[in-house]
Amino acid sequence: MPDSSTYVLAGVDAGKEWERLDTMHNAVDNYLGHKLTPAPSLGHPRKILELGAGSGAWAIQAAKQFPDAEVIAVDISPLPPRPTPVNMKSLQADVAQALPFEPESFDIVHIRYALIHLPHGTAHIPKLGQLVAPGGLLLIDDISLPIITGDAPAVRESFETLAVYMRSKHQDPRIADTLEAKLRESGLFSDVDAFKVSLPLNTPIADPAAQRLSRAFKDSITNVFVGELPAEVRATGFTEELQKAYRDEVDVKEWDGIVEAMWTWSRKL
Ligand SMILES: C[S@@+](CC[C@H](N)C(=O)[O-])C[C@H]1O[C@@H](n2cnc3c(N)ncnc32)[C@H](O)[C@@H]1O
């Protein structure tokens, strides 16, 4: 399938990207105490859909936690060739298009850090909600990228260049700010709950767990900013000079910016 993704890292070295996503998954997993979501209970799901699955780490964990459930992991790019539980399968498909599933056919639909990369991200909420069976859960985990303050021009320019690129693709780099309201406005859910944590990227945090998660986000974003980038992203201003200047500043200069990390769980009417 041609990769028509507007994902900022579409087409880069897949192995390195899967490694970056696995590392971030492990950090979130530790933060959540090895739970798939902060939602109080997932019940006994029989069918679970994971969208924008990346390395498949969340889907693998879900399949292990619920061995009697069928787990389907969807991404626009192939998942890595790795051993997966027998109750998990993968499918290459574009979440921005119609998906080949019956309405109301999943007990859980989960999408993490992927809605932010879809054009008009929150406009997809009704389509995702329609895939959830009555009484089932839509789990959306996403972030708002930081606005940078302080004395680090290359750090600020890198985040601003990413935001400009994303907005040119109709993606919302601050999607977590409106997620909860958009879920409520959809009218599809009896309850919409959310847990949000604000993570300064470059100032020590008193809570050690939040500090570790913040460090993981900082490292993950730094890997993107200093690594291989598609030509189209470079053309928006992500030059090699900017990448070098970012590398020189990121752990040395005084700057900050808050990542808003959000987990939502919405019960289908
Ligand atoms: C930041 S990664 C997150 C991966 C995974 N959800 C996780 O949390 O580790 C975003 C993922 O969304 C996928 N993606 C982007 N646009 C997509 C689309 N239109 N349809 C399906 N997947 C898409 C990318 O290929 C990538 O694997």
Automatic annotation (TrEMBL):
Pfam families (UniProt xref): Methyltransf_23
GO molecular function, one term: methyltransferase activity
InterPro entries xrefs: SAM-dependent_MTases_sf (IPR029063)
Domain of life of the native organism: Eukaryota
CDD domains assigned: AdoMet_MTases
Protein name: Methyltransferase domain-containing protein
Protein species of origin: Dentipellis fragilis
